[in-house]
Specification:
Blueprint lengths: L5 H18 L14 E2 L12 H13 L18 H13 L4 E5 L2 H11 L6 E5 L4 H9 L3 E5 L4 H9 L5 E6 L11 H11 L2 E5 L14 H5 L7 E5 L9 E5 L1 H10 L1 H4 L6 H16 L2 H16 L13 E5 L3 H13 L2 E2 L1 E3 L10 E5 L6 H11 L5
Parallel strand pairs: 1-10, 3-4, 3-5, 5-6, 6-7
Antiparallel strand pairs: 2-8, 7-8, 9-12, 11-12
Helix pairs in contact: 2-11, 3-11, 4-5, 6-7, 12-14
Amino acid sequence: MTPVSAMQTLNQLLRKKIDARKQDNAYRALAPSPAPLKDFCSNDYLGLARSPDLYDLIIKKLDDIGVRQNGATGSRLLSGNTAYTLDVERTLAGIFNSEAALIFNAGYTANVAVLSAIPRRGDTILYDEFAHASIKDGARLSLANRFAFRHNDLEDLVVKIKNARGEKYIVVESVYSMDGDECPLKEIVMLAKEYGAHIILDEAHTTGVVGPAGSGLAVASGVEQGIDVRIYTFGKAMGVHGACVAGSATLIDYLVNFARPFIYTTALPPHSVASIDCAFQYLGGHPNLQHQLQENVHLFTQAIWSLKNRTVSNSPIQTAIFPGNDNVKSAAGQLVNAGFDVRPILSPTVRSGQERLRICLHAFNETEDLLRLASLLGTIGT
C-alpha cells in the first residue's frame, strides 16, 4: 500500500471543508465582474475609482514631485520612507483634525495593528457584535480580554463596561458594512467619558462620504477630540488604496514602535501615496459629489420605503433580506438578468436567516436606474 503523503492528507482535510461549504451553498469563487451591468455593488461611492480626471491628477502629481520609482523598496523604518509620505500624513492630519496621522497599506492592516498593539494583558476590548472581521482578528491577536456587545445597544455596552478589567477599549464603526446603519457615536463618546474608556473608531464607510473634505462622521459630528484612535480607509469612497490612523502624536509614535503590521510590512509605493494625496485634493474641489450621493440615497430609500424586507439606512449601503443562501442567490440572479450588478451576502458572512442583497449606491447612479432597481426589488419573490 502506497503511504499517503503529508500534502495529500492536508488536501483531504481542506477538501472536506470546501465540500461542506458547497453543500451549504456558501461556496465562494473568484470571477471577473459581470460587465457591463449597472454598478450597485462596489464601494466606489463617489465614483473616484473610475474618474479620468483623478487619474490624470495622480500622474501629474508624480511628475511634479519627480518620482520615477515603482516600489517602496522596504518598510517605512528601513528604505521605504520619503519626505513626500510625511507631507501627505501631515495633510491627512489636517483633514481629520488630529495631531498626527500614520499611513497603512490597508484598513484591515490598520485595524489589526491598532488592536494587537495597544490593548495589553489584563485590559478589556468591547466591540460591537457586527464589527468588521479585521477588528475581531486584531482583538484575537491582543492579549487583552475581549467581549462583543449587542449591536448599537448602549445598555448592553454599559453592563459590559461595568464588568471590564484594566484599561477599557470600546471599538465601533461609524457605519456598519452589512446593514449600512450608523453607530450612536455622540452617545458612545459621552459614555466613554463617564466610565473612563477609550474609543477606537473605524471610519471605513464614512471616509470621503461625510464631513468637510471627506473627514468622516467623527469630524462631521464634532466629537473627534473625544475619540482616542480613528482609522480611515481610502479604498472605498476615496477610490484609491491604503488607510491611515489619526490621533495624537504620542499614538502615532507608539504605533511606529510597537505595531508589528506597520514595522514588518513593505511600505505603499509612491504611486499609492500620491493617489491618496490627489484623491483628497480632488474631493476638496468637488463637494458636489457628496451632495449628489446623498440625493441618490434619499431618492432610493423613499422608493423602497414600503418594502417589508429592507433595513433602514441613511448611508449608501442598503440591504434587502432574503433568508437562505438559495433564496438570496436567486434574488441576485434576477437582478443581474435585469442588468444590475447586485451581489448576495451569504451565511456565514452574515447570520443564518439574515442573508441579504447588499446594494451600494453611488453619486454616478442615474435616477432612472435607481427607481427601476427599487421597483424590481418589490417584485422579487412575489
